[in-house]
Amino acid sequence: MLEITDLKSRIGDSEILRGLSLSVKAGEVHAIMGPNGSGKSTLAQVIAGHEDYEVTGGTVTYEGHDLLELEPEERAREGIFLGFQYPVEIPGVNNAYLLKAAVNAKRKHQGLGEVDAFEFLKLAREKMAVLGMDPKFLNRGVNEGFSGGEKKRNEILQMAMLEPSLAILDETDSGLDIDALKAVAAGVNALRSPERAIILVTHYQRLLDYVQPDYVHVLSQGRIVRSGDKSLALELEERGYEWVREAANA
Amino acid sequence: MGTRGRERMKQSSLSIDTLREVVRTLPKNGLTPSREAAVAHLDEHGLPTLRDEDWKYTDLSPVVDISNRWLTAGGQQQLPKPPSETIAAITSSIDAAWLVISNGTIDEQSVGALKQKGVEVSRFSDAPSEFVMSRPLADLNAALLQDGLRVRVTESIEKPIGILIVDRAGDSVAVAQSCVEIEVGSGVSADFIEYHASEGDADHYANTVLSIAVGDRADVRHVRIQNRSVRHVQTGRTSITAGREARLRMASYDLGGGLIRNDVDIDISEPGADITFDGLYLAGDGQHIDNHTRVDHRVGPATSSQEYRGILKGNCRCVWNGKAIVHKGADGTDASQANHNLLLSDKAEIDTKPELEIYADEVKCSHGTTVGQLDETALFYLRARGLDKRHATQILTHAFAADIVLRAPVAGVKDAITAIVEARLAELIEADAAADLLS
């Protein structure tokens, strides 16, 4: 589904990704771990198409097509979803409006008609129940005045409504209490299917107790330095990142 | 000739002789003395020029030019009226008892419709008003006013009173004056909606004067919507006096117009007043919208709070100047001012200036102004959800305006304002997208 080969990227003058390769197939859940500044978020942003990150080398193909050629909105409509580390507050834009606009943008791209308003609300309420979200959040400004946990749940709600083929969740677990973490994990697990792939970008192992990854990769200085199964995450938890960094430099 | 004299020569001035001739042709009635006084005042002071501090960003040359041409052509008072469908489209979209003034002529039938229990209406021609000449352009208004209306609300009313000032520019240049004085009695609750519209291709200048005296403990909500043709010129003055513990919620929406200058004066001479006035202006190519506000806190405690927001796109200029004067002894004053602007093109210009003059000791005053572009992070967030750049821009721009739209204190006008704002923003952003394609 996603093939990243020798990806290099920088923001301004600082090079962040320095030859990263990763292959993700449908049905797989990958966890990308690593210390702060290792390039985890950059990878997520580059896949989503953030214009501040310049790709200076390598290729990214998604379902056989050159992903880097697409605008961010085209990537989203093709089924890529980025759950933001810091979801943006947009006062004055109703949450339901954004959800519906996002769903309709994708449907239009697929040659489908606009979503029926009644069906949309019904679906949104169902998904919100799974996430333990009060339906009143639909009528609030996007993330406006939401707590950290509410914002992350809102990201998962958007993901659930958009049913992406490839979901990248950037530190979705950070700053969550245990209830919110469980709710978010439930939302992610509900999306797991043989047709979908999920990339969890995370600093801590804790989310992986609730969402079991098939693969764990450790990022350091813009490259994947270790890959393994979920036991790697536990090893990291025990031994810390310093161990990986030393291994990478060796 | 000194420098001042030369500058005066450069900026054309109102032809007082022609004005005097036209005023002489107007019917003799209760307005005659004030007309004569107004002409004398204009003769002495002229219209404001760029040399006047309060007018330095707004060149009134179009006002002078249109007025002079119209006066020279005889100062025709019986001007074309807008078709009834135009009027009906507005009055049917907003629930109110509508008073209609077309090209300066008060619609007799609408005056009748205004009359209800607790509302008294009279004409200046029957009961002359004391004009305050020192207010710029109010003198021109007084000199040429066909007739003015005084509306006294003595009991609380449920249905808003609407004042529709709607002009049509026919084949030739036209000038229209209108003046409405509102008095809201003690303890009375009332809603007002002021709507300005114009159509037609010829040059048109409208000059309006509105005053609201908010009685002791009265509760007044006032919404002003200006949706004139971008070809037309309007200057308007709104003067407010607030009684003891009076409450006023006011919001002003400049959504059209070519050259627009609004002056809002608020005078707080009794303690306990609580006044909020907000504004939104949307400007595109060729538009110039100037909002000057002034609050005089003469006694305390009292609260005044204002927030104006502007969205500017293309080659346009907007001005916001908010002045609050806290006079000596007005302790317990709480005055806040804010002006936020979204500049969607580098050709747009905003002059924003809060002015606080504080002569009292115990006061709480704050002001803040911002000028900025769209938030790139929010733009990316929306695009990452599949919304194209134009749609995302539209949403964020709309959200910026929405705060002020939602503050419209009269519930029944929000839909109408939203519809105009949406249409206007779509036009502005559409133009942006077209420019992107061309570049």
Q: What spatial form of chain B do the alpha-carbon principal axes imply? A: globular
From the spread of the alpha carbons, the general shape of chain A counts as globular
Q: What is the level-2 CATH architecture name of chain A?
A: 3-Layer(aba) Sandwich
Q: What proportion strand of chain B?
A: 35-45%
CATH class of chain A: Alpha Beta
Helix/strand order of chain B:
HHHHHEEHEHEEEEEEEEEEEEEEEEHHH
Query: Gyration radius of chain A, to the nearest Å?
Result: 18 Å
Structural class assignment of chain B: alpha/beta
What is the residue-mean pLDDT of chain A, rounded to a whole number? 92
Number of helices of chain A: 7
Q: β content of chain A, as a range?
A: 25-35%
Largest sheet of chain B: 10 strands, mixed
Helix content class of chain A:
25-40%
Counting structural domains of chain B, the number is: 1
Average pLDDT reading of chain B = 92
Major sheet strand order of chain B = 2-1-5-7-9-11-13-15-17-19
Structure write-up:
The complex is a heterodimer of chains A (250) and B (439). With 250 residues, chain A is α/β, with parallel strands linked by helices. Chain A has one domain (2-249): P-loop containing nucleotide triphosphate hydrolases (Rossmann fold, 3-Layer(aba) Sandwich), CATH 3.40.50. Chain A has helices at 40-48, 72-77, 95-109, 117-131, 148-162, 178-191, 230-249, and strands at residues 2-11, 14-24, 29-33, 53-62, 65-66, 80-83, 90-94, 141-142, 166-170, 197-202, 215-220, 223-228. In chain A, β4 (53-62) and β5 form a beta hairpin. In chain A, α4 (117-131) crosses α5. Chain B has one domain (3-374). Chain B is 27% helix and 39% strand. Chain B has ten helices and 19 strands. In chain B, strands 2-1-5-7-9-11-13-15-17-19 form a ten-stranded mixed β-sheet. A nine-stranded mixed β-sheet of chain B has the order 3-4-6-8-10-12-14-16-18, with helices on one face. Chain B starts with a helix and ends with a helix. At the A-B interface, α2, β7 and α3 of A face α8 and α9 of B.
